[in-house]
TrEMBL record:
Forms passive diffusion pores that allow small molecular weight hydrophilic materials across the outer membrane. The lineage of its organism: Bacteria, Pseudomonadati, Pseudomonadota, Alphaproteobacteria, Hyphomicrobiales. Belongs to the alphaproteobacteria porin family. The keyword Ion transport applies. Residues 1-22 form the signal peptide. This is Porin.
Length: 378
């Protein structure tokens, strides 16, 4: 073997090895196909399919900044006749920032639509005046995070944490911020409810409920709520009735909504409840009859000046001669961002008077306040 043959053989071997290594270097795995988020328009705007599932998801909520001044400027939703039962506690100002996160899901099944809804609230702010007793009530800080909704619904059957159907099925009085100056119901409860659509504009609901706070059921017997509604182009008429299993009392509300024109809508709602077995410190209030005495009435409406500006007003009165008046102007600066300015008036008796047997003779206190709200919905 001569030197030339040796060199050629070595070169051929090196080329073969290099070629094999080069071939190994360019072999790559096939890329996984990308799975893009798809829009789901079955349940309305904002839904999309969760990748790899048939479930549609929507994420939303709002940011809200409130400022209140005066006696009726409490913005925690608690400034009403019940507040006056605790004496004077709204005397300076109130500021609150709230972030509300909502999730919605929907999926079609052989048993109907499977839906869920959750709402969680995070808040930072202060209380109006100092009613904590330790001198810190006016100081701002983080507040308790609250789970306001968390329910599952399949077809017409709903289970979980919700607002009582005694409120949400009939409606929340007017489009004012302080719509509970004369309280008309309670809010949160665990429940099992069933909604049905009878057709021709008729809908109904039946609900078994646990109650709230001191009105939580104290046995295995639930509170029972039922409602029926007829809705047409002209408006709607709705009725709800509730049985309080703790006190064995009955309460109900009837509401009429009228679409007077494209600009003007009006409503009136009346409530009546028994108080034969009530022993709640003499105040006569139950889970479903939070107003004073046997009856109460609420009325008001909304007038839309244009697409951006509306005027809302409400007046309420109860059997104990407590009176509440609220009015505001809501202006939508840009879509999704609204500023509302409201004035509130409340004339009500006080728990401090200890005149439970004849509330109407108790000294009344008149309070006036204002609220400015900035809200961004998304």
């Amino acid at each position: 073997m001569n030197i030339k043959s040796l060199l050629l053989g070595s070169a051929a071997a090196l080329i073969a090895v290099s070629g094999a290594r080069a071939a190994d270097a360019v072999v790559v795995a096939e890329p996984e196909p990308a799975e893009y988020v798809k829009i789901c328009d079955v349940y309305g705007a904002g839904y999309f399919y969760i990748p790899g599932t048939e479930t549609c998801l929507r994420i939303g909520g709002y940011l809200r900044y409130d400022m209140g001044v005066g006696d009726s400027g409490s913005l925690d939703g608690a400034n009403n006749v019940a507040d006056h039962m605790d004496g004077d506690r709204h005397d300076t100002y109130y500021k609150n920032m709230r972030f509300t996160l909502r999730t919605y899901t929907g999926q079609e099944t052989e048993l109907g639509t499977l839906k869920t809804f959750t709402e969680t609230r995070f808040q930072f702010g202060n209380s109006s005046g100092d009613y904590t007793g330790d001198g810190t009530g006016w100081q701002a800080g983080n507040k308790t995070t609250t789970l306001n909704f968390a329910w599952i619904q399949l077809g017409g059957l709903r289970v979980g944490k919700d607002e009582t159907v005694y409120d949400q099925f009939i409606g929340y009085a007017g489009n004012v911020i302080q719509d509970t100056l004369i309280p008309y119901g309670v809010k949160d409860t665990n429940l099992i409810s069933y909604y049905f659509d009878a057709g021709s504009g008729f809908t109904g609901v039946v609900s078994l409920e646990e109650g709230t706070a001191v009105n939580t059921i104290d046995s295995y017997v639930p509170h029972v709520v039922g409602g029926l509604k007829y809705k047409g182009d002209w408006g709607a008429i709705t009725g709800v009735v509730a049985y309080d299993s703790n006190y064995e009392e009955v309460a109900g509300k009837v509401r009429l909504d009228v679409n007077v024109s494209k600009e003007l809508t009006l409503f009136v709602m009346g409530g009546y409840g028994t108080n034969d077995n009530i022993n709640d410190f003499g105040t006569g209030r139950t889970q479903y009859k939070p107003w004073g005495g046997n009856w109460a009435v609420w009325g008001g409406g909304t007038y839309k000046f244009n697409e951006k500006t509306s005027f809302n007003a409400q007046i309420s009165y109860d059997d104990w001669k407590n009176l509440g008046v609220a009015a505001n102007v809501a202006y939508t600066i840009v879509p999704g961002f609204t500023v509302t300015t409201e004035v509130d008036y409340l004339n009500a008796g006080k728990f401090d008077d200890f005149d439970f047997n004849n509330w109407t003779k108790a000294d009344k206190k008149s309070s006036v306040g204002g609220i400015v709200r900035f809200q961004r919905n998304f």
